[in-house]
Amino acid sequence: MCPIIRTPRPVNRAETARLMPVVLAITILLPILQGCGLVSSIAGGNVDRARYAKAREAASLEARYLAALRLSDRLVRGDDPENADLVLRLEEDLLRRMVQQLRGRAGWIDAETRYVIDSLDTELHHGSAFVALYLSVRSEGYDVDVGLVMDCILALTPDGDALRVDFEPYNVSPDVSAPGLLSAAEDIIADVIRVRLGTLKEQFPPIGLPLGFDELVAVDGTTTRVRGTPNLVITAPRRLVDYRLRVHDVLVFDSFALVTVNLESLRVR
Amino acid sequence: MVIPRVISPRMHAAVLIPAILLSLLLSACSSIDLPSQEESEAKIRRLRTEIARAEQPLHIYERRFRGERDAVSTLRTDVVNRIFGAVASQRSDDLIIAFPPTRPLLSERKSVLGIRYTNHLDIDSGVVTLNLRRAELVSTRGSALRVLLEIEGAGRISVSGRYTGLPASSSPRIALSLRDTVSMDLQAGKDGTLMLVPRRGEVMLHATLYVKLAGWEIPWNEDIPLRIDELLAPVSLPALISTSIKLPVPAREYSDESYEFVDVPIRLRDPVLFLEGDRIRYTFDCEFMKP
Questions:
Q1: Contact criterion met (CB < 8 Å) for B9 and A86
Q2: Are the CB atoms for B198 and B186 separated by under 8 Å?
Q3: CA-based nearest distance B244→chain A, Å
Q4: Residue A217 CB contacts under 8 Å (≥ 6 apart), including other chains
Q5: pLDDT tens, residue by residue, A61-120
Q6: Burial class of residue B223 (count of CB atoms within 10 Å of its CB; 0-12, 13-18, 19+)
Q7: What chain B residue is nearest to A117 in terms of C-alpha separation?
Q8: Which of A89-93, A220-224, B253-257, B277-281 is predicted least confidently?
Q9: Which of A36, A109, B75, B187 could form a disulfide bond with B30, CB atoms 3.0-4.6 angstroms apart?
């Protein structure tokens, strides 16, 4: 038998030029169209609910794990929270009800995208607090209404004379439980994640819990008349006691948050 | 006439591979980087194990601070002592005692050779400033704190009188001191304030006066009962309790500049205050009211 010798098949330029648009269409345009969601949005089938749900769970577990490590480290290295002069313990349910006061609040993701907070779901874990904001989002740009879930870390930080509760978004996904979910949600999410997740926090203002860290307390003066031997008029002058407290730490545990505070200075005037 | 030219597979690949890479790159850029379900599930399994390990040392703290009420504010009694210490040390005019006329402060009837007369000493006026030298929490019982008070001061007062029928006046030195233990009750106000309220009771102000009046030498000592609940006003303690939260006002238009806030009042329900070792605990539930 003669060995088969394969030689390169000659391709002429005209044939190549004719095939090139097809090759380009297949290799470049189609993935772009698929990726940007336009094609699949029209088809309405690009929201993989289970995939989103798992990705969301993994993202929150990762944040939770890192926060637990940080808390453990802080407690091992630092003081016992019970050594603080004052400790305020806020129960998880109280924080949940406090955050739920935002239900129905409207705001803007950007100039074209308005949101209303439908509900909020708060969870405390060791070292971290999470809140899921269920948003009804109206995008003028896409001319659609979608349900989104914005997962945030609740950051509890002292701010002047208040405890500030900030929302730090770390994940946005379609609300798979929302009725009439539109596949265009993915486009909005893509916008939010790629363009604005870093600055999205600014559109979700914090809650303030005034705590009176700097307090000027008046101790009323008294005047007492004593009739006897001898007669006396005893006056205790009015005093102003100026407490200055400083937050030492804010620690989040599985079912409560602790605010540890020390009495920094005390003046009596 | 077109002369057919041969394009080798290598040249073909040189065009196609960058095109494919570019397309994948663009494709990735234009969609969300979502891991596959299997990748996420593997990550979840791994993280659950790691979280359990990381949280192990934290359970002891959770058990120690666990409670039933919405909020608990805990104050070390040592802070109460620091407040008392500051009140004691930072001012020296803690009590001002004025002496209105007392006539007589004392008198004695005498009879010499059948002549009867009365020696008497009056206080005409005077002001003495007392300094709280020491205020210290010495014990706790129930919801009461026992506080040791040491107050003292001295000054001159104007006295006058008659001795063997002769009028005379003087400005003797009077020393006043109070050393007693008083009970103060812990009380919670509706606005979340924490108060130390003096319990009704008497303390003794010890007065010592030595007067020389026209040859009459009078050592005078008296324990003057004073109502402590009238003398001392309730003292506020820091409690970190809030009776409102600040919520952002809904934004009418897009802005990343500033927010407005509105106060939402909180009503404190069923406050309970108790002493536990060297801690004052104030527990309560919260009810959010309409702004």
A1: no
A2: no
A3: 7
A4: A240, A241, A242, A243, B236
A5: 998 899 899 998 888 887 788 889 999 999 999 999 999 999 998 888 878 888 899 999
A6: exposed
A7: B250
A8: B253-257
A9: A36
Find where tokens 């990762």 sit.
A62
Q: Tell if the CB–CB gap between B40 and A55 is shorter than 8 Å.
A: yes
Containing H/E element for A202?
none
∠ at Cα B205 (B208, B226), nearest 5°? Answer: 145
Cβ pair A13:B247 closer than 8 A: no
Give B245's contacts in chain A (Cβ within 8 Å).
98, 101, 207-210
Least Cα distance to A102 among A114, A90, A119, A115 occurs for A119
Task: In whole angstroms, give the CA distance from residue B196 to residue B149.
Answer: 15
What's the CA angle centered on B97, arms B92 and B101, to 5 degrees?
A: 155
Please list every residue in chain A whose beta carbon sits closer than 8 Å to the beta carbon of residue B1.
Answer: none
Using a CB-CB distance cutoff of 8 angstroms, which residues of chain A are in contact with residue B123? 230-231
**ipTM score of complex:** 0.76
Q: What is the DSSP code string of A152-164?
A: EEEEEEEETTEEE
Among A74-83, A190-199, A230-239, the range with the most confident prediction by mean pLDDT is A230-239
Residues of A in contact with B231 (CB under 8 A): 222, 224, 234, 236
- On whether any CB of chain A is under 8 Å from the CB of B61, the answer is yes
Token readout for A120 is 């909020």
- Calculate the CA B81 to chain-centre distance: 11
